[in-house]
Amino acid sequence: MSKKKKAIHDSLWDDYNESDYMRQSRLGLDVSLVRRISEDKAEPNWMLEKRLESLKLYEQMPLPTFGPDLSKLDLNNITYYAKAVKGQAETWDDVPADIKNTFDRLGIPKAEQEVLAGVGAQYESTMVYHSLKEEYKKKGVIFEDLDVALKKYPELVEPYFMKVMPASLHKFSALHGAVWSGGTFLYIPAGLKLKQPLQAYFRMNAKGMGQFEHTLIIVEKHAEAHYIEGCSAPRYGADSLHAGGVEIYVKEGARFRYSSVESWSKDAYNLNTKRAIVEKDAHMEWVGGNFGSNTTMLYPCSILVGEGASADHLGVAFAGDGQIQDTGAKVIHAAKNTSSTIVMKSISKGGGKSVYRGSVEIKPEADNAAVSVKCDALILDDKSVSDTIPAMKIDNATATIAHEASAGKISAEDLFYLRSRGLKEDEAAAMIVNGFIEPITKELPLEYSVEMNRMVELEMENSVG
């Protein structure tokens, strides 16, 4: 049965379910918990060894020394593993009623029926439902819970798992390697152009929860596909942690789009790692929106390793009262004739802080690389902050680099014009903000574009005037 907490902006954060299953879980992390996770999942020995190696690295590594201060995050007061269901359901009707109602409110079953090739739904540490339309199974598409794929397709999982985002990358990739659970495995066979997108939705429910799903995607030569992720959690007034991992391998001539809208509650730390390897003449596209969370640190990375490889990074972040949205992109050009485009938008209000933190690296061998970076910030009051922190390491003189950054406020003239046409002040401000982020939202699937516009409207209530 769903309870209602104190009314805040959006039902994504208002509603939560009873969590009796938490009695079987505990706070904190040690070797025994890592071994329990692996044993629960009946994993092969190589995965247990990888988890234990990651745990050692995690214990040795300091917190990141750049970006937001994470010292207030009590890592000993997080639940790292919680199993809300005994097993994965074959149909939505088989999902426990309270969990199913959560995903019903999010529109996931309806979207599966109408527009999706397949869907996955994770609740706490485990996938509760996963499906793929039969026509795509017959064409060789594999879309599974990663826990399942690890057993069914070890020859595909083991060569790629945590290769592009190794545990040694930083403290939270090491943590992820130790306690990852659930997530998605997606394999698109060579030459297949998948017309319908696939989607996974990740929901944290319990107080003080941590979620560490792992997404592993392999797009073979000349294939095309689109994958969508959504995330949310209720608000409790206690820290929660999301440190998922995304690895994408885009093979020669392939094209892949990864879209995500992250709507964590405002007491969550969102410390996600997303990285892609892009081979010859392949194209990788990241489209993302970040709302909610206490603190977000998220910088999707494209590593262009093949001649003619390219990447687009499009993102928008909204920072409100008490929030830090530290987001951006990283692109490494490691081959000839590669290109990348980064377009980032941020909105700050109520004392929130938005930061674009970007990194572009041109390797010596990357002749004729082309890079375009554009960062636009909209600041809605005198208390809010927006920073742009680009880093560029150019080791090849043939590179062409363009960087543009701007920051501004909503003009009084625009507000006056819209109010003269009958709009209330916050409605007018929301319309202007939605126009500002439209270059990003138009690239999202319709339901997510609508969701983002609605979030802007809710966030804008009483924000001006």
TrEMBL record:
Domain SUF system FeS cluster assembly SufBD core positions: 202-436
Family annotation (Pfam families): SUFBD_core (PF01458), SufBD_N (PF19295)
GO terms, biological process: iron-sulfur cluster assembly
Domain of life: Bacteria
Domain SUF system FeS cluster assembly SufBD N-terminal: 132-199
InterPro entries noted in UniProt: Fe-S_cluster_assembly_SufBD (IPR055346), SUF_FeS_clus_asmbl_SufB (IPR010231), SUF_FeS_clus_asmbl_SufBD_core (IPR000825), SUF_FeS_clus_asmbl_SufBD_sf (IPR037284), SufBD_N (IPR045595)
Entry's family note: Belongs to the iron-sulfur cluster assembly SufBD family.
Protein name: Fe-S cluster assembly protein SufB
Origin species: Candidatus Falkowbacteria bacterium HGW-Falkowbacteria-2
